[in-house]
Amino acid sequence: MPNWLLPENVADVLPSEARKTEELRRALLDNFRRYGYELVAPPMLEYLESLMPVADDDLDLRMFKLVDQLSGRTMGVRADMTTQVARIDAHLLNRSSVTRLCYAGTVLHTRPSGFHTTREPLQIGAELYGHAGLEADIEIQALALASLKLAGLTDVTLDLSHAGILRAIIDGDAVATRQSAELIALLRAKDLPGLQTLAAGFSAPVRDAVMALATLHGGVEVLSRAKERLPARPEIQAALEALDQLARSAATVRLNIDLADLSGYQYESGVVFALYVPGLPNAVARGGRYDQVGEAFGRARPATGFSMDLREIARLLPAALPASAIRAPWGTQPELQALIQSLRAQGEIVIQNLPGHEDDQQEFDCDREIVADQGKFIIQSLR
After folding, report:
1. Residue 330 — very low, low, confident or very high, per pLDDT cuts 50/70/90?
2. Which listed site, 181, 216, 355, 367, has its alpha carbon 20 to 30 Å from 59?
3. Where is mean pLDDT largest: 30-34, 90-94, 212-216, 270-274?
4. What pLDDT digit, counting tens, does each position of 202-218 carry?
5. Closest CA to 32 of 92, 87, 78, 101
6. Are 290 and 306 in contact (CB under 8 A)?
7. Mean pLDDT of 30-55
8. Strand ranges inside the chain, DSSP E
9. Angle at CA of residue 267, ends 266 and 273, nearest 5°
10. Whole-angstrom Cα distance, residue 374 to residue 371?
11. Residues contacting 73, CB < 8 A, separation 6+
12. Rounded Cα gap, residues 263 and 241, in angstroms
């Protein structure tokens, strides 16, 4: 095997793509800060129980694991940063007020999450802690939509669901609760024959509600149908009302409500959403509420947030144009060096040519150059 061959779904990021991704990362983090979100940087490695404080089969399968040579304990390479940020809020910051945190960093997956996706996503996201009201969910959803708009993606579809509806349906049915992981998988796949077979052992009201849940997808009218077909439990009615308010708050984008869409990690506890754009089968952003995660770190806190893969978003954007630059001759003359330093301090890209390599700037568009003119160095246009 050639020593330069990389594992499947792992790739080098070359200059133009790396620049496009990095510029997007900076723009998004700057925008998060304008909303009041503080940047944190969790470690790549943690003990397994810290990375996965809530039982989650999806996350467990997606995470690389290894043994710590110092302690002998099992460690994980993070596959998602949300629980890490929840740990920081609950255990390290320990604030009683509302806390807004954001992050950006590489995560690793044992398997790709979709077609043509990397196993080394560059995850960026924002999390809001300390407010249980729907206002926090509306803010996070709006920030996710604003982030895609900032990235240049405007033809967006918002997919809404609620993790609490299924929990309320199967609550009290021991068989359904025990088989919840398989039930979620069948609901995600809209596998009606499989659901019918699995639900045969459920109580009749739970079986009927589960089968109805698999068909409740479409526009905002789905919420009216859901009120008619699902059990009239207060938790379900409250969840449907929350979805209605979130749909109203995002009236400017295309909307889809799918009450069987339980994609994502199993730590989610309330409203969940996904954002889709043309040309990509996978969601470009996912978010939702996960109030139970902080409890594992000693302090339960209301929590909601979203994340997305910068590399996947960058792939959808037009190729980055070569950056405007100034070409300078090689030389150590004080006047030349002073001019170059002054231009760089002003934000200009100045490339000093090495002897014999005058036209090697592939990533830059040298539209000006520094030349000697009557004992002085001046800038002249190359157009």
Report:
1. very high
2. 216
3. 30-34
4. 999 999 999 999 999 99
5. 101
6. no
7. 93
8. 38-39, 45-47, 64-67, 74-77, 99-106, 122-129, 157-162, 217-218, 254-258, 271-276, 285-289, 303-309, 323-328, 350-352, 364-373, 376-381
9. 80
10. 10
11. 47, 48, 67
12. 21
Contact 284, 313 (CB under 8 A): yes
CA distances from 147 to 107, 284, 308 (A): 20, 11, 10
Fold of the domain spanning 1-154+281-320: BirA Bifunctional Protein; domain 2 (3.30.930)
Tokens of 181: 């992981």
Common-topology check for domains 1-154+281-320 and 157-276: yes
Q: What is the mean pLDDT of residues 149-170?
A: 93
Mean pLDDT of 47-65: 87
Angstrom distance (rounded) from CA 187 to CA 195: 7
Between strands 303-309 and 323-328, the pairing is unpaired
Confidence of residue 1 (pLDDT cuts 50, 70, 90): low
H or E stretch including 142?
Answer: helix 134-151
User: With respect to CATH, is domain 157-276 assigned 1.10.3210.10?
Assistant: no
Q: For 105, how many CA atoms within 13 A lie in the half-sphere containing its CB?
A: 20
Q: Is the pLDDT of residue 181 over 90?
A: no
Among candidate residues 124, 262, 255, the one with its CA nearest the CA of residue 187: 262
User: 245: closest CA among 156, 136, 130?
Assistant: 136
Question: Which residue is associated with the tokens 């000006």?
Answer: 368
Amino acid at 379: I
Q: Does residue 247 contact residue 141 with C-beta atoms inside 8 Å? A: no
Cross-strand partners of 289: 304
How far apart (Å, rounded) are the C-alpha atoms in residues 121 and 178?
Answer: 33
DSSP class of 89: I
pTM: 0.89
Ordered by start, the domain boundaries in the chain are: 1-154+281-320, 157-276, 325-381
Residue of 97, 137, 143 lying closest to 124 (CA atoms): 143
- Confidence band, pLDDT 50/70/90 cuts, at residue 94: confident
State both tokens at 141: 């959803």
Q: Which of 29, 44, 115, 111 is nearest to 81 (CA)?
A: 44
Q: Which two tokens stand for residue 62?
A: 């997606």
Distance separating alpha carbons of residues 87 and 295, to the nearest angstrom = 9
